Every structure is written in structure tokens, then in C-alpha cells.
Amino acid sequence: MTDTALWWVRNDCRLHDNPVLRAAATADRLVPVYCFDPRLYGSQQYSEHDPFQYQKTGPHRAQFQRESVADVRATLREQNTNVLVRTGSPAEVLDELAASVDADRILTQRLPDPEALETEDAVRERVEPDTTVESRWIHTLYHIDDLPTPPADIDDTYTPFRKHVEANSAVRPTVEPPALPPLPADVGDDIAVGELPSLTDLDLSLSTPSADERAFLEFSGGETAAKQRVQEYIWEEDKLRAYKKTRNGLLGADYSSKLSAWLAAGCLSPRYIFEEVERYETERVANDSTYWLIFELIWRDFFQFQVAKYGGQFFARGGLQERDDIDWRDPSPEHNETVPSGALTAEQAFERWKRGETGIPFVDANMRELNTTGYLSNRGRQNVASFLVNNLRIDWRDGAAYFETQLVDYDPCSNYGNWAYIAGVGNDSRDRFFDIDWQANRYDAEAEYVTHWLPELNGLPPEHAHAPWTMTPDEQADYGVELGVDYPKPMVSLAASTDHLE
Ligand SMILES: Cc1cc2nc3c(=O)[nH]c(=O)nc-3n(C[C@H](O)[C@H](O)[C@H](O)COP(=O)(O)OP(=O)(O)OC[C@H]3O[C@@H](n4cnc5c(N)ncnc54)[C@H](O)[C@@H]3O)c2cc1C
């Protein structure tokens, strides 16, 4: 009997180290398919339960996804096959396609977050009972089945989790890309291969995100670009040997690996990076820095397994700690907050944070980089998140939802996990407050970063570039920067706005 399989490509846009594809490739007839789910783009709400009205995917990530699918398509074409592209809910698309090609199996990736699981369940419920849906966990460094304890029993604090896993588990070796059967003859004749939707088709107002010359790296989606970045960062630029020292940087292409977007879209397997690091350690040097990249990949794993453990609670207002003692301000327009005369409502404050117009240069520079490029350094993310939750006291989930729209490397577990951590409702009971003033002077001593993204502050000495409100009117006139005209006055006092933390 002929075995026909659909490979439902999700966040595994790659041929290397892809156990889902290997299993699918054993079929006699294989039809790869990628669905652009309209609920994830434009103005549609994901579900009626979704309290946030933000578009889930902004232009930076949508463009990256298009490129990732185009790249896998080009690679498959070299093997006489292809990836079908559809815009529609996966349940409807896969049901229809499975019926058209008489599929026995749908093979896909298992992701832990509730929305991804719901989507997978919807497919399982929708397709005919004689089509099975097989999902495999393939996106972490350590496999979920190789954890020393089931996810329900893992430690909620990173260090003991990491030590336990490192001592009692091993990273599985990568698997080779399989030989693929050609695309069945009826596909292409009777069944359309399908064109990639444009960003406008996806209800995004822009046709393409515009390139900005201030960006240091172009994030092009796809496995080809992902491997190129590994090659450049680790081998050609030889940056891995100093990663631990440079990773807190803010400016430039190479202070950190910048692999996150390819990892999130599954263009890159973390085990591939692991093996490249091992090879580098054998051929060049093994030191703290080479280990530290693995250490960070285990942070990524940690949040994936935490979501597998806590499910929806991980994303709730009180976080996995179920805290109800923090009075977060609600920035939604419907909230109608009353504030003393002259004070900003949460909605107004949130808008200024989003636009990078808080009047605190270190926050604004980071937000403008995020808005312009879709990427932000880890240090920058920590500071702007802390400012929103600790200084402005705005609901951490609104900040996380804004990042969800903007980030080219958005991943639900890493994003909400890091936000909850900083908000003090996640995997650490301590409040994670960042002293913005101290951070700015420590990590941007010469104010090169803030003036790169805030050219209006160019020419100010570092102490004023980080705190323009300290300039007298005469100094403002001398430097040609008038507060409230050329650059906003600070929306809050950094010191006074954290009194509640004491
Ligand atoms: C508020 C906030 C939101 C974040 N949202 C995301 C997100 O949506 N997607 C995302 O991939 N990362 C997120 N991070 C984690 C981290 O900032 C990025 O992974 C990192 O900046 C990406 O740059 P890089 O690839 O050069 O990282 P590197 O420093 O080179 O690290 C290598 C890899 O390790 C992983 N990693 C590093 N730090 C973390 C971390 N703290 N948590 C989880 N994984 C980590 C990433 O996969 C990263 O690509 C967030 C951090 C904060 C503070």
C-alpha cells in the first residue's frame, strides 16, 4: 500500500537536523506544506480569549518568515520537490489537502505553548480519522524525553535546573538531512503549489520593512542565511572565543551571536550550534566563552520546559507564582484611568514607551532600535522591560505583547519567560529591577549607543546625553538641544518612580 505523508512545516524551516522531516521522508509520497495562519497577522484577534488587541506578527518577523519559507522551497526544488504554501487556518488547510492527496499521515513539530498546542489539536480534530497526526519535539538542545525528570518535576530556578540536566542528560547527535521523494505528480497539475503571500496580503500595512542604515546586521530568513551566520560568527570572524566578554554589548553585529531569529523560526537547530561549538573547541579553543553560548542555549531550553510544565499559567497576569499583590496599571484605551492633573495615564505612558519618547535616552534608544530593526540586545531588552514594569508599573503582559509584535526572534516561551522574570512573577521570586541610570553609564559609558539611535542628542557630552534633563537652559542653548522641543522632557523621575520598590 502506498504511504502518503504531509510534512506540515511549522517552526522547523530546515533540512538539517530535522527528525520530523526524516520521519516524513520514509513515505512513498511526501507533500510538504506551510500555512500562513491569518490569525497571526494584521488586525485579527487570535482568539476571543486573547485579552490583547495587538497584531501578533509585525512586518519584521513576517518578512523573515516569508524568506524562511522561500529558502526551504528553493532547497527542496533542487530535489524535485517543493513546499506548498497556503494562507488559512492549519486545520482547514490540512484537512482539505489531506483529502486531496489521500494522506495517511501528517507529520509535524510539537511546540509547548498553549496556542501552538491548540492549533495542533484543532488539526487532529478536523482531519478524517484515517489520517493520523504525529508530532515530535525537535526544537530544544536537550530532548524533553531525555530530561532527568519529567517536565512537571523540573526545578523552577535556572541554576539547579541546568546543573541537574548537564549532570544527568546528554545532547543527542544531529541527524542528517534525508533523501526526499519527489513531489507527487498530481501536485502542481491538480493541486496548486501556491505563492508566498506578500506582507500586504497578510494584512500588514507595509509591503516590506524598510532597511535602515543604522542597523548592523540584516536578518534574512532561511536555513542558508542561518548557516552563513554561524560560519561568519564562529569561524570567519572568530568571535566565539570572546563571547562571554562581549555579550552584554549594545552596538555592532558581533557582540553576541545574533542567532535567535533563526533559532526561533527553526531555520537553525540548537544541536547544530552545539556541534559547531564542540568542533571549535577541538580545532581552536575551549574556554568560558565557548561554554557560555551553550549556557545561553540552556536558558532557552529552560523556558521551553517551563512552559511545558505550567502551560497557560506561565502567561497569566500573576505568572507561574500566581501573584496577586502587584497592582499593574492597565494601558488599554477602554480602561479610562483617572490620574492627577498633569500626570500621564497608563495608556499615554505606554504609547511613549512604545515610540521611544520617554525622555530617558537609554530607554528611547533601545525602543527605537527595536522598532526600526526588530532586534534588540539582551541588555536593552532587560532595561526597557524593567522600565515599563518597575518605573511605569504597567502590566508586564502588555510589554511582552508589544515585543511579540516587533521582535524578529519572538518566541513565546523566551519572551514571556523573560518578561515575567523581570516583572517578579516568573522563575525567580526576587524583583528584577534595573537601575537605568547605572546601566546606561556602565554599558554605554561614551553614550555611543544612545547617540547612534538618537541623533538629536549628537554632540552632547556623555553625562548629558544620558541625562539631558541635567542641562541648564544655557547649556541647552550651547549644545542646540532644547528639552521638550528637540528631545522630550523625562516622563518620570528615574529615582522617584521606583520608591514603591523599597
Ligand atoms: C524582556 C525579554 C524578552 C526576550 N524575548 C525573547 C524572544 O522572544 N526570543 C528570544 O529568542 N529571546 C528572547 N529574549 C532573550 C535574549 O534577549 C535573546 O535571545 C538574545 O538577545 C538574542 O540575541 P543573540 O542571539 O545574539 O543571543 P546570544 O547572547 O548570542 O545567545 C545565544 C542564544 O541563546 C538563547 N538565549 C540567550 N539569552 C536567552 C534568554 N535570556 N532567554 C532565552 N534564551 C536565551 C537565544 O536563543 C540566543 O540566540 C528576551 C529577553 C528579554 C530580557
Write up what this structure looks like.
With 502 residues, the protein is mostly helical. It has three domains: 4-138, Rossmann fold; 223-310, Alpha Horseshoe (Serine Threonine Protein Phosphatase 5, Tetratricopeptide repeat); 333-501, DNA Cyclobutane Dipyrimidine Photolyase, subunit A, domain 3. 42% of the residues lie in helices and 6% in strands. It contains 20 helices and five strands. It has helices at residues 19-24, 59-77, 90-101, 114-126, 158-168, 186-189, 223-236, 243-246, 260-264, 270-283, 288-310, 346-355, 361-373, 378-391, 396-406, 412-423, 436-443, 448-453, 462-466, 473-479; strands spanning 4-9, 29-36, 84-87, 105-109, 132-136. Strands 3-2-1-4-5 form a five-stranded parallel sheet. Helix 1 (19-24) links the parallel strand 1 (4-9) and strand 2. The longest helix has 23 residues, at 288-310. The protein is globular, with a radius of gyration of 24 Å. The protein binds flavin-adenine dinucleotide. Flavin-adenine dinucleotide (FAD) binds next to helix 9, helix 11, helix 14 and helix 16.
Nutshell version of this structure?
This protein has helices at 19-24, 59-77, 90-101, 114-126, 158-168, 186-189, 223-236, 243-246, 260-264, 270-283, 288-310, 346-355, 361-373, 378-391, 396-406, 412-423, 436-443, 448-453, 462-466, 473-479; strands spanning 4-9, 29-36, 84-87, 105-109, 132-136. With 502 residues, the protein is mainly α. It has 3 domains: 4-138, Rossmann fold, CATH 3.40.50.620; 223-310, Serine Threonine Protein Phosphatase 5, Tetratricopeptide repeat, CATH 1.25.40; 333-501, DNA Cyclobutane Dipyrimidine Photolyase, subunit A, domain 3.
